[in-house]
Amino acid sequence: MTFDLTASLPARNFEMSLSLGPSETLAILGPNGAGKSTLLGVISGLLRPESGSARLGGRELFTLDGGTRRWSAPHLRGTALLAQEALLFPHLNVLDNVAFGPRSTGASRTEAREVARHWLDEVDALALANRKPAQLSGGQAQRVAVARALAAEPELLLLDEPMAALDIHTAPLLRRVLKRVLADRKAIIVTHDVLDAYMLADRVIVVESGRIVEEGPTRQVLERPRSHFAAGLAGLNLVAGTLGQEGITTPDGRVFAGQHDPDWSLVAGQAGVAAFPPSSVSVFLGDVHGSPRNSFPVTITDLEPHGDQVRVRASSGPSNTLSADITPAASADLGLAPGMEVRFVVKSALVSVYPA
Fold first, then answer.
1. Residue 54 main-chain phi, psi, to 5 deg
2. Candidates 2.40.50.100, 3.40.640.10, 2.60.40.10, 1.10.357.10; CATH matching 238-356
3. 238-356: same fold as 3-223?
4. CA separation for the pair 203, 225 (Å, rounded)
5. Does position 121 have pLDDT exceeding 70, yes or no?
6. Helix or strand or coil: residue 71?
7. Domain residue limits, the chain
8. Structure pTM?
9. What is the DSSP string of 107-138?
10. How far apart, in whole angstroms, are the C-alpha atoms of residue 61 and residue 72?
11. 115 partner at 20 to 30 Å CA-CA among 8, 100, 166, 229?
C-alpha cells in the first residue's frame, strides 16, 4: 500500500509532491519555516491546500483540482499525528488514553483495553497503565502518546519532531522504541536531528521555502549532500559552482579543486558541489607557503566549542559560510576572534566533488 500526495498552498508559498512506499519511513528535514509542519497538516487533514490530491492505498484523502472538490475529515483518513507534546487526556489514566482510539472506532471496552495493553507493552510502558498523565515524566508521556497513536491502527503515522521536547537521556530510549515499531509500517517524521534520520528513515527529503530541494536514500543525502541545509546537518562544508576537470568553479571565478566522486556521472559545465569536513580545514593568518590548491580569504563570524575542538565559523561571501575545526591551543596561538580576516586552506585530496 503506497501513499501519494501533490498539494499547493500559495498563501504559504507551499508546493510539494511526494510518494511513500509500503513499510517505508520518510524523514522531512529543513530549516524553520520551510513548510515541514504545513506538509503534515495537509496530510492529516488539519490544513486544506488550494489544489492537489492525495491517496493512501486505495483511499482518496482529498482531490481539489478544477471543479472536483472532495475532502476527507481527519478522523476518516487512516492517519495519526504525533506532535512534540504528548497531549494526553488529563482525566484518563494511561490505559484508557491508549484505548481511546479503538473505542472511538467501535471496539468494546474490553477489546480496546486489550489493544492498549499490547501497545503499551510494545513501547515499554505497560507498568504505567494505571497512572494519570500528571504522574508521568516527559519521556514516559511521549512513549504513551506513541502507543495511543499506534493503537488507532493508522495506515500512515505522522511524527512532528517527537524527540524535540525530551532531554538527552530520554530521547535515545524513545528513538529505540520508534525504530522497533516503525519497522513494518509507513511513517513520515519531521526532525532537525540527523540521528533521527539515520536511525529511523529509509529516505530523506530536504525542504526549503515550501519546496523539495533534495531527496534520496538517507545515507546518500547525508554523506553526499547537495543543499547547504543537509550539508550543515551532516557536519560538512559545501561550496557550489560549475563542474570542471579539476573540481568546481565558483560563481566568483575561483577554482575549487577536489576529487571527483566515482559514483556520479560528471559532465563539465553542469552545476556541482564540493563537500569537505571542517576537520580538513587549516587556518592561517597570512600568506600560505607552497601554493596549496584550495586557499581563500574568509572573515571569522563565530568561535564555539565543538567536542574537544574549537569550531571556527567564517564567511567567504555574501551567502557562503564555512567552518574549520582546530585545537584550542591553535586558536589561542593565532589569536582568533570574530571579525578577523584569515585564510582557510583545504587539501584537494580531502574534497569530494559531485553534481548538484
1. -150, 140
2. 2.40.50.100
3. no
4. 13
5. yes
6. strand
7. 3-223, 238-356
8. 0.82
9. --HHHHHHHHHHHHHHTT-GGGTT--GGGS-H
10. 5
11. 166
- What tens digit of pLDDT does each residue of 213-231 get? 999 999 888 888 888 888 8
> Under a CB-based contact definition with an 8 Å cutoff, are residues 212 and 205 in contact?
yes
Cell digits for 75?
Answer: 478522523
Q: Which amino acid is located at 122 in the chain?
A: E
d(CA 96, CA 84): 21
What DSSP character marks residue 280? G
H-type alpha helices, 136-215 = 138-151, 171-181, 194-200
Amino acid (one-letter) located at 196? D
CATH fold of the domain at 3-223? Rossmann fold (3.40.50)
In 3D space, the residue among 190, 166, 197, 193 whose CA is nearest the CA of residue 44 turns out to be 190
Cell readout for 223 is: 554523506
CB 38 within 8 A of CB 192: no
Q: How far apart are CA 85 and CA 249, in angstroms?
A: 46
Please name the amino acid found at residue 240.
Answer: A
Q: What is the pLDDT of residue 26?
A: 96
Q: Which residues of 220-232 are buried (b: 16+ CB within 10 A; e: fewer)?
A: ebbebbbbbbbbb
Q: How far apart are CA 3 and CA 93, in angstroms?
A: 34
CA 121 – CA 342 distance, rounded (Å): 57
